[in-house]
Amino acid sequence: MRSARHNSSAVINKSQRRAIQRYSAFFLLPTVAAFIIGFVWPFVWGVYLSFFRFRTLGKTTYVGFDNYIKAFNDTTFLSSFWFTLAFTVVSLIVINLIAFFLAYAFTRKLRGSNIFRTIFFMPNLIGGIVLGYLWKIILDAVIIRYFGSALALESKYGFIGLIILVSWQQIGYMMIIYIAGLQNVPTEFTEAAKIDGANSRQLLRHITIPSVMPSITICTFLTLTNGFKLFDQNLALTAGRPNNETEMLALNIYNSFYESSTNMGVGQAKAVVFFAVVVIIALSQLYFTRSKEVQQ
Amino acid sequence: MRKLRSFFTTGFFSLISAVWVLPVVIVLFNSFKSNDSIKTSLFTLPSTESFVGLENYIKGIFQGNYPFYLAIIYSFIITVLSVGLILLCTSMAAWYINRVDSLFCRIVYYFCIFSMVVPFQMVMFTLSKTADKLLLDTPFTIPVVYLGFGAGLAVFLFSGFIKSIPLEIEEAATIDGCNTLQIFFRVVAPIMRSTYISVAILEIMWVWNDYLLPYLVLDKREYRTIPIQIQYLQGSYGQVDYGATMALIILCLIPIISIYFFCQKHIIKGVLSGAVKG
């Protein structure tokens, strides 16, 4: 996609370009103005504010890296980081295994596979808040009746509940990506391997999985970033209960802004750290995708 | 033997599919039951004693200090205005950026890609303060905030398609006497139809389901969206009305699911086009 620009031999000529440029206020200005209001300025200001101690914006005091030191000494921030990491790893494995299994089954000749795809994708359209309360009612009913506990009482139920919830939500999405990948597996390869006497397990291991590696990379990173950024579902299902034990990173940052009124600068510093973590994940995705492209 | 096996696999996946929709079905049944019956037996069908008709729905829509139908109206207004604004402005900007291709355009483009990686928590505090100052805290002005925060992904998606449009088409239109506006609205925009649909679906799903941005930006005494109102009803302490909650959940799901069954292919394609966002 990137190289398309260089391949297109025709470069727009000067007079046409000038004609378009005359309309810059109409074509470009609205988006750029809104982009500055909605992103660029808040971002720059946010980084700036992370070096200040403040309760209201009227009174800010420069404190250097003090907010960052406080953030890393905050036990709730660290525990929310470990909870998020554990959650992300488990959800990544569960979602991708099941999604791949379903995609594999639904790309073979199977009656009704179109209906199955429709059904499995459906939960992806439901918003996080509604999804969270839908599952909260059901899970609480099960836990109260069969385990004599509740989501808000033990963190292990909150953890399992969150895994069930995001699996339900995201498996269909990842399944569709895997289906697209599986449909791109060249049939000549599979047929040639079959003629050579490969059984279905060998086919899967040596032909199918290597061919869908790009899909696997995409889905791995999507589930990874989704896990790290999870907020709505966390707020609706457990809201961090009990005792902030099921609080994830995004919710922890939110709470240090709006639930505790001591120093909002710490919240902003946490947000910058959070941003850095997400950027590291995105950059490693770029690296992985690139190195795969070289092989092909 | 083969037939038998395919019969069993279909049966197996039918069973899993049934389990998959079960949560929605349970909530649907319970939205017609009385509160007592929901608490004692969530997993039974409504019986003659526990069936309460549409009582939960009426309660959910009209009760409380903030009527739910207002939240539906505001959600609808915000979604329509925001998505309309995003489609119009970002498609124009993406075309301009790709055709003019000046240094400034490239900077804007790379900023757009960068913004796709930034999590909302990074800007939530400063963004809500900025929006407050600029009076963007009503359903009729919040679309500007959505345009600003959502511009990155939309510009990126439109650009991807614009790069594949052969320049000859636009050159021919110029020779035929089209001016710049006509080239964009009569020639380029119609070609991008399928991209418009994909981006529209992606943005609709985002704005309609979004909770934190409107919660922080809107003046919540006057304006609430559906997710905000559900969070208010549930997050507050005190007695939770399960029946009304389930009725509201069903009300939220009906438009989404019915639209989904009518234009499934477009929706899946549109939602998947967001997979590039890290």
What does this structure look like?
The complex is a heterodimer of chains A (296) and B (278). Chain A is mainly alpha-helical and 296 residues long. Chain A has 2 domains: 11-49, no CATH class; 69-295, MetI-like fold, CATH 1.10.3720. Helices cover 75% and strands 2% of the residues of chain A. Chain A is built from 15 helices and 2 strands. Chain A has helices at residues 4-7, 14-21, 24-27, 29-49, 66-73, 75-106, 113-121, 128-147, 155-183, 187-195, 200-211, 213-229, 232-237, 249-258, 264-295, and strands spanning 52-54, 60-62. A two-stranded antiparallel ribbon of chain A has the order 1-2. In chain A, β1 and β2 form a beta hairpin. The radius of gyration of chain A is 24 Å and the shape is globular. Mean pLDDT of chain A is 87; it is low at 1-9. By secondary structure, chain B is mainly α. Chain B folds into 2 domains: 2-54, no CATH class; 68-236, MetI-like fold, CATH 1.10.3720. Chain B is built from 14 helices and no strands. Chain B has helices spanning 2-30, 35-40, 55-62, 68-100, 103-117, 120-133, 142-162, 167-175, 180-191, 193-209, 212-217, 226-235, 242-262, 264-272. Chain B is globular. The model of chain B has no long low-confidence stretch (mean pLDDT 88). Chains A and B meet through α2, α3, α4, α7 and α8 of A and α1, α4, α5, α6 and α7 of B.
